[in-house]
């Protein structure tokens, strides 16, 4: 079973594996982020080209949404020969629920200039296995293979992967599959028990200095709660070959009960 099944050119149906994590009758937004990235990379009707590579992915979450059919649209906001700004949008139950604005740039060989990457972290084979369902319910979380090392509340390293296809019977690239895991950064190194404190993220921005490989996603993460009801999650992103970008999420922090 995949996370989504395409039902028409621009419509998709979620499966039960998309459920969770704050409520199991709602969708976890992580697979939707992967779907939006997949659409930006492959929609030839709106873009008509595939010679540019995403360098920034900014997702906004408009609110929770049910396990119901989804409509999508892709539009080019700023066309160009060397750079392009593309927007993808998902609607569910009659309203917009998530958007992606992606900056894409032309590819070039800058091997001789490559430098300044963050420090590497111990790989998945060197990191203990962890069951994320001890903190989070839902089909999506249960579909993940996770390795984790904690350095303290809200601070640690996690490796995450899934063997579940993003879209049924459809070829999906390494970046979209990776993007479909990014949103778990906020929940793999928790600062507070999610049964006692809610801290959903409003957004997620990933800046990429190279294209990730498929497979394990590494998250070297710090979660910070402020004193005024907000917080942030910040991660250095890794794949099996090393760091490839950085991630940031804005959190709304609320005690429960």
Automatic annotation (TrEMBL):
Q: Which residues form the Acyl-CoA thioesterase-like C-terminal domain?
A: 124-253
SUPFAM superfamilies found in the cross-reference section? Thioesterase/thiol ester dehydrase-isomerase
Q: Which Pfam families match?
A: 4HBT_3, 4HBT_3C
Record region (Disordered): 113-132
Q: So which domain of life are we looking at?
A: Bacteria
Q: Which InterPro entries match?
A: ACOT8-like_C, Acyl-CoA_hotdog, HotDog_dom_sf, TesB_ACOT8-like_N
What residues does the Acyl-CoA thioesterase-like N-terminal HotDog domain cover?
22-104
Segments forming a coiled coil: none
Name recorded for this polypeptide = Acyl-CoA thioesterase domain-containing protein
Instruction: Give the source species.
Output: Isoptericola haloaureus
């Amino acid at each position: 079973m995949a996370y989504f099944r395409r039902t028409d050119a621009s419509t998709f149906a979620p499966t039960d594996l998309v459920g969770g994590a704050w409520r199991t009758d709602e969708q976890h937004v992580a697979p939707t982020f992967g779907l939006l990235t997949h659409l930006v990379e492959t929609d030839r009707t709106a873009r008509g080209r595939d010679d540019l590579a995403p360098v920034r992915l900014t997702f906004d979450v408009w609110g929770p949404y049910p396990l119901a059919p989804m409509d999508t649209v892709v539009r080019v906001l700023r066309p160009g020969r060397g750079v392009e700004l593309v927007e993808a949008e998902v609607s569910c139950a009659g309203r917009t629920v998530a958007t992606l604005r992606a900056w894409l740039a032309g590819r070039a060989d800058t091997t001789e200039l490559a430098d300044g990457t963050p420090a590497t972290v111990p790989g998945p084979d060197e990191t203990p296995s962890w069951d994320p369902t001890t903190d989070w319910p839902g089909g999506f979380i249960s579909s993940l293979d996770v390795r984790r090392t904690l350095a303290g509340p809200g601070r640690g390293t996690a490796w995450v992967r899934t063997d579940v296809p993003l879209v049924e019977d459809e070829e999906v690239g390494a970046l979209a599959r990776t993007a479909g895991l990014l949103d778990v950064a906020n929940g793999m190194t928790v600062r507070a028990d999610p049964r006692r404190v809610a801290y959903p993220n409003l957004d997620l921005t990933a800046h990429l200095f190279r294209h990730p490989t498929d497979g394990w996603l590494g998250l070297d993460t710090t979660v910070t709660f402020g004193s005024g009801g907000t917080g942030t999650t910040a991660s250095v992103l890794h794949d099996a070959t090393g760091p490839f970008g950085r991630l940031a999420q804005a959190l709304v922090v609320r005690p429960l009960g």
